[in-house]
Specification:
The chain has 147 residues and is of the alpha+beta class. It contains three helices and six strands, in the order ααββαββββ. 29% of the residues are buried. Keywords: Hydrolase.
């Protein structure tokens, strides 16, 4: 695959594989986040917990969850908006429900509201047993190009 991404006009053009390629060398790549599903209806991604993600008590740092939640909501919202414009997060509210020290985690985004000016998405992160470990809600502003 060529690293020339110039043919991509919007996030709606991306597959999970292409999003993983584009993410190489970014903050989400540093976390090990791998996209498995990607559309304007929602995004799913997973990653394996490593000690580099820990806070001093030896559990996943809440910032990791905030990052994953913001990423999945933003990518899904951008895919939904498509070529009409782009999105930026304006609020991220994340609840941490269960301490995690190891294993694979999965995040799934679901739309709550997709309007003309803003979108609201919920993201749930679960462990390998299907237990919710974190849940977040992200509000995004739709940005349209100036004509």
């Amino acid at each position: 695959m060529s690293d020339d991404f110039s043919s991509i006009k919007s996030l709606a053009d991306l597959t999970p594989e292409l999003m993983n390629k584009i993410s190489e060398g970014t903050f989400t790549d540093l976390l090990g986040l791998k996209f498995t599903e990607l559309s304007g209806e929602g995004v799913t991604a997973e990653w394996v917990v490593t000690p580099q993600q820990f806070q001093p008590a030896g559990i996943v740092n809440g910032g990791v969850y905030c990052t994953v939640i913001e990423t999945l909501a933003s990518v899904a919202a951008g895919a939904w908006l498509g070529e009409r414009g782009s999105v930026v997060g304006v609020n991220n509210n994340t609840d941490f429900l269960r301490a995690v020290r190891e294993g694979k985690l999965t995040g799934v985004s679901t739309p709550i509201h997709r309007g003309r000016s803003q979108q609201l998405w919920v993201v749930v992160i679960t462990d390998e047993q299907g237990r919710t470990v974190a849940r977040g809600q992200v509000r995004l502003q739709n940005l349209y190009p100036q004509n």
